[in-house]
Amino acid sequence: MTYFLQQLxxxxxxxxxxxxxxxxYTMVYGILTMINFAHGDLFMVGAxxxxxxxxxxxxxFVPTLLLSMAGVxxxxxxxxxxxxxxxxxxxxVSAVITAxxxxxxxxxxxxxxxxxxxxxxxxxxxxxWTIGGVSISSLQIIIILLSIALMIILDLVVRRTMVGMAMRxxxxxxxIVPLMGVPLDLIISxxxxxxxxxxxxxxxxxxxAFPVIDPYMxxxxxxxAFISAVVGGIGNxxxxxxxxxxxxxxxxxxxxxxxxxxxxxxxFGLLLILxxxxxxxxxxxxxxxxx
Amino acid sequence: MPTxxxxxxxxxTPRQEGKWERWRQRWDRIASNRRILxxxxxxxxxxxxxxxxxxxxxxxxQLILMYVGINIILCTSLNLIxxxxxxxxxxxxxxxxxxxxxxxxxxxxxxPTALNPWLxxxxxxxxxxxxxxxxxxxxxxxxxxxGAYLAIVTLAFNMIVKSVxxxxxxxxxxxxxxxxxxLTTLPWTFFxxxxxxxxxxxxxxxNFGRGVLSIREDEIASDLxxxxxxxxxxxxxxxxxxxxxxxxxxxxxxxxxxSPRVFDIxxxxxxxxxxxxxxxxxxxxxxxxxxxxxxxxxxxxxxGVWRMVLMPLVLVLLMLFRPRGIMGLREFRxxxxxxxLLAAHLWRKKKEATDAPAAS
Lengths: 291, 360
Hints:
The complex is a heterodimer.
Chain A lengths: L1 H31 L6 H17 L5 H24 L7 H22 L4 E2 L8 E4 L2 E4 H23 L1 H11 L11 H26 L2 E2 L3 H16 L4 H21 L5 H15 L14
Antiparallel strand pairs in A: 1-4, 2-3
Helix pairs in contact in A: 1-5, 1-7, 1-8, 1-9, 2-3, 2-4, 2-7, 2-8, 3-7, 5-6, 5-7, 6-7, 8-9, 9-10
Chain B lengths: L18 H14 L3 H19 L4 H26 L7 H19 L5 H24 L7 H21 L18 H19 L2 H11 L1 H6 L4 H27 L9 H14 L4 H17 L6 H16 L16 H22 L1
């Protein structure tokens, strides 16, 4: 039982990181109906900014996190303006391939400057408490609480503020809403800034939890976060959070109770079975199709 | 320029003496003469036998030529699903892995070495058939799911294939299969490439191919027009994975070493990039995309690490200026059936005739 609880804690830690990245995918999909495949690499850039801030600037945890989030948000907005905005009228797949290209560019550009895996210094004093046989580290608490706090803030922003209302309106109808005086470009930029900065927060926390980072770390984590966004129902913000925790939970539990090499096989098999029963994800609704 | 213009429809422009115009006319004459095609194919086949026999070009270029062929097979077969059917399949390397492993297991473990060169074509076909069967399994979820959901079905398929291979100790597990005999030769690569292009081109312009195209435009509408969408999807996935398996088999016997890591999601992304670089829904585009991608990567090799920085930039710039890829939806004239060219020609003549009084 304690073993299960211990693994549940690990699952929460991994799941909250997946959920934060999945939010970026789902927000961009909701507003532009395009899959931003560069998002996993923005997560990697977030981790590298954290490494730079912690190693060269010797900043403590909170400024590092803020710096990484702000830097990646700027990068995300710039990418949207330069690479995706000209393609808004083009077929959707062109934008997706552009996103793949941007992602490859970010990976290899980082690789030029950091050919070897880097080690991120520990920014948080490592303390461990044992409660009923379950050991909890300070890092785990910070990761889980901080991600949940970020998710609650995001949910409030999307549901309670004018900006959030504008986002929901644009995802509802992109051609009518700008006529009502909603600044389309600004709202899309804000969406990109929020989504990518959440990815950067995930990158920072990931690099503290698993301190060896390399330029290709974003690929697998990014694809997995994309899967959790789809499992939750892509375009649905609460769905992405649930999907992230489900994927993290399944991965950790499979590795805990079965040979760990079966992890991908069982985890993705389960996800496929889930998609058979809920073809539009857990919270997603099928869009009415017209002929 | 290869366009869909029928022969002789080149309007006589006043500036005929321009050098560019002369070249254009010359090209037009070549492009509209279909009888050159079999001659060119025969010449290419003879050349593909002569080149390795007499070492006409150095082995490095021969190797690149073979990779170009394999990539053309991969790219054309993925184009059938992503371009003609309009789905977004991101797990093509998974199919390739099945073909590569089936063929490599056959040649290294079951068939005596002496027989390998003679049985190699058969082995490639067996690998293709096995992959086609796997493709059938992936086609079934595509009945219900579309778009991003089908994308993760194929993505998960790719990861599951990789994970299953890693867990089977008998075929090397994560270490892969080393020491595969080098059986892929230039003539065979040429033959399979031409066969793949020929089969897929004929499929696309057949009745089934029209069904596949109608799924891209509107699935519900085509269903209502009594197109058997399930059959079309099954056929498209099976043919596509069959050729992916063949490409995998050729790839394994060219690289001489395969491991699950070769066939991960990055390989799938490469094929995707080739397809969209060339242009979706165009076989000429696939041929061009695969050739340009493969050759450009080799040409840029002196740049070292910067090559991989430059390549995505080229891709992004190309997408910004030509969002539909190099060829868009257009097709080279030789690949379009003759009756269709004729129909387009007649239509244009009729339109010119009806437009003329209105313009004057």
